[in-house]
Amino acid sequence: MNKEKENIVVLGAGESGVGAAILAKAKGFDVFVSDAGIIKPNFKDELNEHAIPWEEGGHTMSRILNADEVIKSPGIPNSSELIQQIRANGVIPICDIEFAARYTNAKLIAITGSNGKTTTTHLVHHVLKAGELAVEMAGNVGVSFARCVLENRADFYVLELSSFQLEDMYDFKADIAILLNITPDHLDRYNDNILTYGRAKMRIINNQSIADAFIYNADDEQIKIQLEKHVVHAKRFPFSLTNTQVEGGFYKEEEKTISIKNKLTMSIHDLALKGKHNVQNSLVAGITGKLVGIRKESIRESLSDFTNVEHRLEFVAKVNGIEFINDSKATNINATWFALESMNNPTVWVVGGVDKGNDYEELLPLVQEKVKAIICLGKDNSKIIEAFADVVDTIVETQSPVDAVGYGYQLAKKDDTVLLSPACASFDLFENYEDRGQQFKNAVRSL
């Protein structure tokens, strides 16, 4: 039994919370799980199986405030009254990643950024697995990190981390920290201040030493600003699409090649993932592979045969010559910019949902060049209509994926593309972006 902190409360009974609760119970803590919403039946069954008491539909504050430590869902903002009460009681809540990291000696590769986290996490995992390392993915992908740690699954963990998780991490140290980009996202949680949001992202380098590595995007303006304000102890491995002198990896426009740590060069035409943003993701995976000692032949092969993740520029089907692409994971402007930038055919764009403070102006040039019609899929589409009414003649509104796909099929012609890339969160009409993407795919397959 851990005598210093005997009572642990876990706030939120999703995958990460239940995983943390099970790990805490296995380590000898008294654990209580509290969720303001309704807990899914499979998670209730797991908690009961491990004899972990729980509550749903609200919080018993007396029990929560009696905790020696609180592990909270990243979806609960630190500004909430609940967290403020806990802090006033002398307890600083942590996230499940912080808790689970205490119980593993595995090497930790932590990945954050506004866009590309999931694709890059899968790609780094693919490179390491092909290099015959014992590696698992966790964090925002797959099963919770706590479950992996409890089962001692791997020698390396590739962790996808959000700014929300990083806010609640204090002693965690990444052996390799990766920062892909900092672009406007979730600014509603950061008082519309991108510098505050950027500081949360920079927590990825907390506690690193000269023995660790920091891989980052040397072309990103917000990262440059943050680097001026932070001391980086780790060895730096920047990557760039414009500067061929960086130490990590770079892209040569004239030769259409990438070079990784000056030891591995390959044509971008051999990369499995297309588009400039995926050149960056491939550079990151290649640099990581070299840092952990994987042979360059294995890295080259891995970057060539990788299959993209679901809901990220995912080809769904071609129906009478019309291509349907599911990019439901694009929940902000920057992600949708990359999607539109990669379109080579006239595009019917399906967009909309819960706006997170979007400024659509930066999409205007791409929309003018590539988009022939817009289908709004959301409850409130006024901001989208206002932004693009002067540049796109046809804009229709719908609140159903079936209707959106139907409109797309009507508005597109042979060799056109219907692209779901919402630039918004999904919670007005869907459970999450996966639900939105799956319903879109089901509708396409029903044509």
Automatic annotation (TrEMBL):
Protein name, entry field: UDP-N-acetylmuramoylalanine--D-glutamate ligase
Domain Mur ligase central stretches: 111-286
Pathway: Cell wall biogenesis; peptidoglycan biosynthesis
Role of this protein: Cell wall formation. Catalyzes the addition of glutamate to the nucleotide precursor UDP-N-acetylmuramoyl-L-alanine (UMA).
Annotated catalysed reactions: UDP-N-acetyl-alpha-D-muramoyl-L-alanine + D-glutamate + ATP = UDP-N-acetyl-alpha-D-muramoyl-L-alanyl-D-glutamate + ADP + phosphate + H(+)
EC numbers: 6.3.2.9
Family: Belongs to the MurCDEF family.
Organism: Brumimicrobium salinarum
Localization per record: Cytoplasm
GO BP annotations listed: cell division; cell wall organization; peptidoglycan biosynthetic process; regulation of cell shape
